[in-house]
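Hello again, I could really use a second opinion on something today. I've been staring at a protein lately and its backbone has me curious. Can you walk me through what the tokens say about the fold? Take your time with it, there's no hurry, and the full record follows here:
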Amino acid sequence: MAVTDEAIQKLKQMINSGQLRPGDRLPREPELAAMLSLSRNSLREAVKALSLINVLDVRQGDGTYVTSLHPRLLVDAMAFVVDFHHDDSVLHFLEVRRILEPAATAMAATHMTDDAAAELTKVLDALPPDPSVEELVANDQEFHRRIVEGSGNPVLSSLVESLSSRTHRARIWRGVTQGSAVERTLAEHRAICQAISQRQPEVARSWATVHVAGVEQWLRQSLHDDLGADPAGGHRPAVPPAGH
């Protein structure tokens, strides 16, 4: 592992120094191993590790290339990790999202163009009167994607998107649907949209905070008190607050 770490550091240094730039093809394995004084095995393991986090792109029969290194591409690995967390640890991701997403929403209220802000309303209007969970998830994902992109900060946008995977959105929306909280949730979408259109960053931030906090509260209840005792001594499912 130490040898592989050394190989990773040497490749990283080549990229950071500009020896290898986005889109560049790496030298052939024997040549690169000799250049870096590495064994071919340790180099191979380093390339495999860096390809997993989208720093390198291994193309069978064509060679290995440095990716675009765009923040969204690099942060994709985090979204992959988020999907593996199903218990209490997922709340840690939601706590981070509660910090970052309101900031991105406030920035969107300042940076989004009038046309982009108007498109947000069109996204919400495109949802059918009686949407399925799949339609809710797709609409929700597109709505929030446009907002965080509108922040004007690609790193912040990528981080926020990675913290809320489609898998978790689907789980939340199923809970919201079962709890008859869809209208309340969609009303919060409208409030966020209105605050952005009216260039009210602090109002947009506040609505986004309430919105994500509702998700966090529901998920916390779902994880820790999924079934609550009813007066008759049976059990009833926890009712989710609005949010996703």
In short: Residues 201-224 form the longest helix (24 residues). Strands lie at 56-59, 63-66, 227-229, 235-237. Confidence is low (pLDDT under 50) at residues 227-243.
